[in-house]
Sequence to fold (176 residues):
Amino acid sequence: MKSLFRVARRVVLAVGVLFCLGFAWPQRFVMPVEGAGRSSFHPESFWYHPWGRSVTHKGVDIFARKGTPVRAATSGLVVFTGELGMGGRVALVLGPRWRMHYYAHLERIDVARGHWLRPGERLGTVGDTGNARGKPPHLHYTIGTLVPLPWQVRPGPHGLRRMWYVDPTPLLNGAS
Fold:
């Protein structure tokens, strides 16, 4: 029994250290669409309601020509690449502070699951896949968090879900 307690204590300690390291990991942020600037996205589109089938727009659309390179906004581990209904071709990257960076409507994906990205490294290209078909090409960029932010809760549709998302516009406005 003492041995089991020691193992459990070590596991809890290891998880705690790993959790803290996720927050200590520095976040260097770059604009995810090559050549884009503040005029390439609408700063009030994050958490915009009403927004079609998704009800609330949980990210920012960065408009660019089809085929424009999409770069990793920050360092991280590619945890998923593939096709999702509304997102079309997507990539999901686990980055600093336990945040998930979601890149959607990609024309092409240039990285594979398990790849470690550096800030600014090419991830894919801007497209119009998923529910963006027939609309101007753009990157739908969302930052989700694995650690809830209860102070982000707002009244209205999906207001409780707001604690699981980070507004990317301040980062995009200051991006290089």
About this structure: The domain at 26-173 is CATH 2.70.70.10 (Glucose Permease (Domain IIA)). The helical segments are 2-24, 169-173. The CA atoms of residues 38 and 173 lie 6 Å apart.
